Amino acid sequence: MSRRLTLIIALLALSGLANGQVVFTSLEDVWKYADAHNITIRTVKYELDKSGYATKQSYSAMLPQVNATGSYVDNLALQTTLLPGDFVGKPGTYVPLQFGQQFVYSGGINAQMYVLNLQNWYSARMAKQTEEMNKDSLANTRKNVYQQLATQYYSYLLMQEAARLADETARIADSVYQTTNNKYKEGTNNESNVDVTKLNLERAQQTQITARYQMLTARNNLKALLGFSVNDSLQINATLQSNLDVETNSAFAEDPLIRLASWKTKISLTQYRQSNSAFVPTINVLYNYATQRFDKTFEPFSGATGVAGWFPSQYWSLQASFPLFTSGSRYFQSKRNKLNYQESMEQYEYAQKQSAINDENLRLNYQKAKAVLGKTQDVMNLSLDNYKHISYRYDAGIAPLEDRLNAFRDYIDYQNQYLNSLSDMLVQLYQVKLRQQSF
Q: What is the pLDDT of residue 298?
């Protein structure tokens, strides 16, 4: 019974670990996860939602404005008015009289709507354009976050490759050191050669340590970008061999920066037209209905005393406002907005041309980096083969130790060149992948 209980607990523990671990097999998996969990993307999504409400708010300003009013007045002391006594049969005197009732009830409805107000119309249009621009701002934010993720993702794979080569180099360096040290003990080698081989071993082990810690750092940086905590488990099940090729002949998607420049141009044009609309008169319709009732006692709506009836009044009006003189401020504002529009239009056209050139250079740089990487990898492999041949000759007593050490040093140099070429190629690779994304 206890063995079964122990097995169940172990299975539950493993299940918990499995559920808490996130595994990525490609860069696209990382990007997809970031869309829902990266804090920067989530924040911009909130801003996009806010701009949607701002658009609705701007359009609602063009709807009729309706207000209902109601009031209650308690005249604690009515005002006294002196009237000539002739009105009441007392000539030559003044009679004090009080007019009105103690309690007054009133209510009414007021409605107003702009028939013509281009300022509000352009404000609503500008809010809608800003909302659309914020959608492309979200796309641009996603592109920037994707680039940060790709940098860390490929840094991890690059350091994984560096660690693999460092392991291989450390094994070779250890083998050379052991052989050289044994021959030194036999008296057939000098201490200087032992020191050189020991130095090569230490450098290879140093590279091992550096690569492994940089792998951990890149993974932690991915955790930070994806909203993980430091204790959450993140695993990358991918190799460089399955991540190096990408098609470059297909057309790239439109860069979000270009779309942002386009929206800035449209908003600048709307601002310019809005400033011109300040010279157009505004027209609005106003309707008002009001009613009152008076009473001597506080008995609302009973009609038992005082004046039982309500006294309604209503009117409607058509109002127009003509801007005749505003000290030239609106005129100069219109001139400024026109220049802003022309400037944004030129920047948009330039951005389009520059984006096309950048895309073409990106294709060229990727193809160059891939070709150079192939050559540096071939050179590194040939250098390793050369080292092995010289090692066989050394073991056979044909080649001196210096030749073997020189061949090993050349292999390390070509290995570093390969890693540098690989790093450059990976940068070009994820830039191409980014441009192929539809944000």
A: 65
Whether residue 59 has pLDDT greater than 50:
yes
> For the chain, how many residues are written?
439
Decide if 167 is inside a domain.
yes
Residue 242 CA, distance from chain mean position? 29
Per-residue pLDDT tens for 347-394?
Answer: 999 989 998 899 899 999 999 999 999 999 999 999 999 989 988 888
61-65, 108-112, 215-219, 378-382: range with lowest mean pLDDT? 61-65
Q: Do 408 and 227 form a contact (C-beta atoms < 8 A)?
A: no
Residue 421: pLDDT over 80: yes
Taking only the tens place, the pLDDT of each residue in 23-36 is: 888 888 999 999 99
Is residue 316 within 8 Å of residue 284, measured between CB atoms? Answer: no
> Is 347 contained in some domain?
yes
Query: What range does the domain containing 86 cover?
Result: 72-115+282-321
User: Residue 182: what pLDDT?
Assistant: 83
CA distance 402 to 393: 12
Q: What average pLDDT does the chain have?
A: 84
In the structure encoding, which two tokens stand for residue 81, read together? 């008015």
Phi, psi angle pair for 429, to nearest 5°:
-65, -50
Q: Is the Cβ–Cβ distance between 201 and 142 less than 8 Å?
A: no
Collect all residues with Cβ–Cβ distance below 8 Å to 315 and sequence separation of at least 6.
Answer: 287, 288
Among residues 412, 286, 431, 298, the alpha carbon closest in space to that of 370 is found at 431
Question: Does a structural domain hold residue 172?
Answer: yes
Q: DSSP E strands: which ranges in 140-281?
A: 233-236
Task: Report the C-alpha gap between 105 and 201 in whole angstroms.
Answer: 100
Number of domains the chain contains? 2
**Cβ–Cβ contacts within 10 Å for residue 19, how many?**
9
Please, what is the Cα angle at 149 between 147 and 151, to 5 degrees? 70
Has this prediction a pTM greater than 0.85? no
Which amino acid is present at 98? Answer: Q
Q: How far apart are CA 129 and CA 270, in angstroms?
A: 9
